[in-house]
Amino acid sequence: MKVDVLNIEGKSTGRSVELPSEIFGIEPNDHAVYLAVKSYQAAQRQGTHKAKEKGEITASTKKVKKQKGTGTARAGSLKSPVFRGGGRVFGPRPRTYDIKLNKKVKSLAKASALSAKAHEGKIVVIEDFTFDKPKTQEFLKVISNLNATDKKSLLVLNDYDKNLYLSSRNVKKSGVVNAKDLNTFQILNAQSIILSESSINKIKETFA
Questions:
Q1: How many Å apart are CA 104 and CA 113, to the nearest integer?
Q2: Would you say the pTM of this structure is higher than 0.85?
Q3: Fold of the CATH domain 2-45+100-207
């Protein structure tokens, strides 16, 4: 699949690049995509929820009332779950929500998501560029030239670029990511995928 290479002004450079068919041209596997997104979202949960049980409550150990003659049930401790402020029965405990996925399933999910975006015409290839220093207005200008101002856009780079990252940090609907760190959720969440020219080889290396 050939795609024209654009410059930062949104105009064609006269060159085109071939997107690997084994990554951008496969039949999407919906179940693999579902598992990858589920795994990603589960990993975002902190899992730090905690409720105190009976043995963790700080309270007087004095017997609440006499054993017999009250006409009500026996009560030996204020820490009992039946009392206000007592411990909770089977309360939540800290845990991890991580879901393990095989590498092949992750790769299949990413390839499926990229293929779907390519089929929808939502992938743009731009020649490599950078800024001398962080410039949010310049970054916005590039996004505007690519007709992605009102869309959720994701710029995929070959390697980490501090100036580009800082330039995009305050832009609400745009993000910058390294090709090796690209995940299925980010691909699906973006309405426009902007690939830097050199990032395509990096994506191929990652899948290999």
A1: 14
A2: no
A3: Ribosomal Protein L4; Chain: A; (3.40.1370)
